[in-house]
Write a structure and sequence with these properties.
There is one protein chain. This protein is α/β, with parallel strands linked by helices. The chain folds into two domains: about 325 residues, no CATH class; about 160 residues, 3-Layer(bba) Sandwich (Glucose Oxidase, domain 1), CATH 3.50.30.80. It is about 40% helix and about 15% strand. It contains 22 helices and 14 strands. The longest helix has about 30 residues.
Length: about 600
């Protein structure tokens, strides 16, 4: 069966599986849309509160439902580089809307936390849950029922998935995602990684480490490696939520502002009062979700999206599974080498042809659904472009290059970096897990070694510093799942495990926690489910058990006979240290209500 046929078959399977949830979702969406412009159902006192600060002309327009009103949901804060550029966006959007007879209001703000700041800190245990909280917060802003479409200002790890969940929950409204773009290139990511490993070995001090980190993360915009934030931007474009070509334009440039103005005008055109009504919940369908998964594989994207895409799809009544993701990985080649899968950053990716070339290659070979709806309104073929700034300050689109400008960064399908996608699923007597192999050398795709069990990142780091890990082993870091402590990222493990691998030891990681989009050269079976706190098999592993992680066969096994494993009592960890501090007590209800990793690790959708 051809790749095109396989993708079509998987899509059809998702459609059939989703009918019991997708059809009621669409019925609810269409019922909401049938009620007409949102403000028409508001009483006079309600409406007066909603436009109290507007000008007289705007009040008259809103009262008569003569113009469309855009709701802005912003993740702005000025501490985090990716979100700081959004400070000026509301004013730009209001001005652009007014220029074409529309109105825009900030409907609400959502929290935006940075995993880079909270790595290894108590705050990281709030990170994954912030996705669902963001969806709720956006829902509060839009619940005022004053808006005909929404513009979502978001970029990073949990922010975009949370905003997508909100956009699909309010799926009767059109939605456009407006990015801020990546920061300009700084210290190369591989050099930053080298200094981190030297620090882990005690060969450089904190001053040298901080200098390297500051040169890498040095200005406004997303981090330039291909982690979850930039995977988010890829997804929003390939799924049709972005204006074509807008994902990777640097902040503070005329072209960046031109895209923001264009998105505003387009949002007004696709409201129910315009000629091209495009409700988000109908625009995003099973084909759009499959396109997102294909893009994730083709670019070696973030493992976090094995959680987020499942949850995002469920918000639209679509039942995506890890099996779907795994089977799509088998037929989608890896076309991008962006750190940690290569030496380039996302600016190099964009310069090599970027999203336009990538989408063109995938469409040309039948690996994407072109017949989807997008905010641009013309299917995915309209996204096979390269953006330029026109003489009048508008966005001009030219055809994407026929060949990659830099084949070491962005390959054609005829000469891919590897034949399958960067993400694979593992299954066996330890449950199910995810592994990202696009940055792992082939001789490390299979690791069989004794287990060393830890219940925290710190335990492993301490053992490394004490010289106890100079051997072949698989680190089992458990009680890191969503119910245990919110499923924090475990990137503090990357430097020590990388050092040990470089010393020639065969090492790997097995965890019910996360390693996210920056997962690199050490094989890591992550998101293990059932998690340890639920008594999953990972809770029965003992030091010295031989574990076989086989990313080629897609298996994850502890080589202990079934009867012995079943007879062992599940270890119960003391998790009291995770209950309080840095806001963790506020999220106790989330830990009690969260679903399993393969269901999206969500408190909203089980």
């Amino acid at each position: 069966m051809s790749a095109h046929s396989r993708i079509a078959a998987i899509t059809s399977r998702i459609v059939e599986r989703s009918k019991p949830t997708r059809e009621p979702y669409l019925d609810r969406l269409r019922n909401a849309a049938s009620r007409g412009p949102a403000r028409s159902v508001l009483g006079c006192a309600n409406l007066a509160h909603g436009f109290a600060v507007c000008s007289t002309a705007e009040k008259e327009a809103l009262a008569g439902d003569r113009v469309s009103n855009l709701g802005i949901i912003t993740s702005y804060n000025d501490m985090l580089s990716a979100h700081q550029p959004f400070e000026t966006y509301p004013a730009i959007i209001r001005e652009a809307a007014a220029a074409v007879g529309g109105i825009a209001q900030v409907a609400g703000a959502v929290p935006a936390m940075c995993d880079g700041v909270t790595q290894g800190q108590p705050g990281m245990e709030l990170s994954l849950f912030s996705r669902d909280l963001i969806a709720m917060a956006a829902g509060v802003g839009l619940s005022h029922n004053m808006f005909d479409a929404a513009l979502y200002l978001g970029v990073c790890d949990k922010i975009v998935p949370g905003l997508v969940i909100a956009a699909l929950t309010f799926g009767h409204m059109p939605a456009i995602f407006v990015p801020a773009g990546p920061m300009t290139s700084g210290l190369p990511n591989d050099e930053k990684s080298r200094v981190r490993q030297l620090f882990a070995e005690g060969k450089v001090g904190r001053a040298e480490l901080l200098e390297a980190e500051s040169k890498s993360y040095h200005g406004p915009g997303t981090c330039t490696f291909y982690g979850t934030a930039n995977s988010n931007q890829m997804l929003m474009e390939i799924m049709g939520f972005h204006m074509p070509g807008s994902s990777f334009i640097n902040p503070g440039t005329p072209l960046r502002e031109a895209f923001t103005r264009e998105a505003t005008r387009r949002a007004l055109e696709i409201t129910a009062q315009g000629n091209e009504y495009t409700p988000a919940g109908e625009m995003i369908d099973e084909r759009s979700i499959v396109n997102g998964v294909v893009g994730l594989h083709a670019t070696g994207g973030s493992t976090n999206h094995t959680l987020h895409l499942v949850a995002m799809a469920r918000a639209g009544g679509i039942q995506l599974t890890w099996q779907d993701i795994a089977e799509l990985s088998e037929v989608v080649p890896l076309l991008a080498r962006v750190y940690p899968n290569g030496l380039a950053d996302v600016n190099h990716f964009h310069a090599a042809g970027g999203m336009g070339f990538l989408i063109k290659e995938l469409l040309k070979h039948g690996l994407l659904h072109d017949d989807v709806r997008t905010v641009f309104g013309q299917g995915l073929q309209a996204y096979t472009i390269e953006p330029r700034l026109g003489a009048d300050g508008s966005v001009v689109r030219e055809a994407a290059p026929e060949k990659s400008v830099d084949p070491k960064v962005l390959a054609s399908i005829e000469t891919p970096f590897q034949a399958n996608g960067g993400l694979k699923m593992l299954r066996g007597n330890l449950g199910r897990a995810v592994i990202k192999i696009s940055a792992v050398k082939q001789d490390r795709h299979v690791i069989e070694a004794p287990a060393i069990v830890f219940h925290s990142q710190q335990e492993l780091q301490d053992a490394f510093k004490e010289g106890k890990l100079n051997r072949d082993f698989i680190a089992v870091v458990r009680f890191q799942g969503p119910k245990a402590n919110g499923m924090p990222e475990l990137h503090k493990l990357t430097p020590p495990l990388g050092v040990l691998q470089d010393r020639g030891f065969r090492v790997a990681l097995l965890t019910d926690g996360r390693m996210s989009g920056a997962s690199g050269k050490v094989p890591a079976a992550i998101h293990v489910t059932p998690e340890a706190v639920d008594g999953g098999p990972i809770s029965r592993i003992q030091d010295g058990d031989i574990i076989r992680l086989d990313a080629i066969a897609g298996t994850l096994e502890v080589l202990v006979d079934a009867a012995t494993l079943a007879e062992r009592e599940a270890v119960v960890a003391d998790l009291s240290d995770n209950e309080f501090g840095m806001g963790r007590e506020l999220f106790a209800p989330f830990r009690r209500a969260v679903g399993a990793s393969d269901k999206g690790a969500s408190v909203l959708f089980h």
